[in-house]
Amino acid sequence: MIPRMEILPEKKVIGKRVTMTFTDNKTVELWRSFMPRRQEITNNLTTDLLCMQIYDLSLDSEKFNPNTVFDKWAVVEVSDFENVPQNMEMFTLPTGLYAVFLYRGDARNFSGTFQYIFETWLPNSEYTLDNRPHFEILGEKYKNNSPDSEEEIWVPVKRKK
Prior knowledge:
Layout: E1 4-8, E2 11-20, H1 27-34, E3 49-54, E4 70-78, E5 89-93, E6 96-104, H2 110-121, E7 127-129, E8 134-138, E9 150-159
Antiparallel strand pairs: 1-6, 2-4, 2-5, 3-4, 3-8, 6-9, 7-9, 8-9
């Protein structure tokens, strides 16, 4: 699995967020609270959904474990922050370099791909993680829990020194 490298322009997003860990995974609850209300966001730029994670990367990666706390967001890209629905939040994704991996398959088998990215590809690449949000783009080919599903995994990187 070889990623394409892409510079992400700054993006404005609106959605919902939860603080969680991998052992106390609240992803399903987050999306169940967001999906019925996503039509309230009226200035979408695309129909794509983004699943965004914000980690405290000041943590030593060796100390990252299933109990490490992070924020997970369910968002859509918007043109501006003029109309933010009640109980939703806005966030600006900063510009930067990303390694973009195409994942095909059931979301329940996702962990093997993440393991490959962070334990095999990244250590053997000319890149290191950058302290910016990670996210997945759930576009028109995304089919929740289907073996035919496709999504893009965006990993923030910078060249090793």
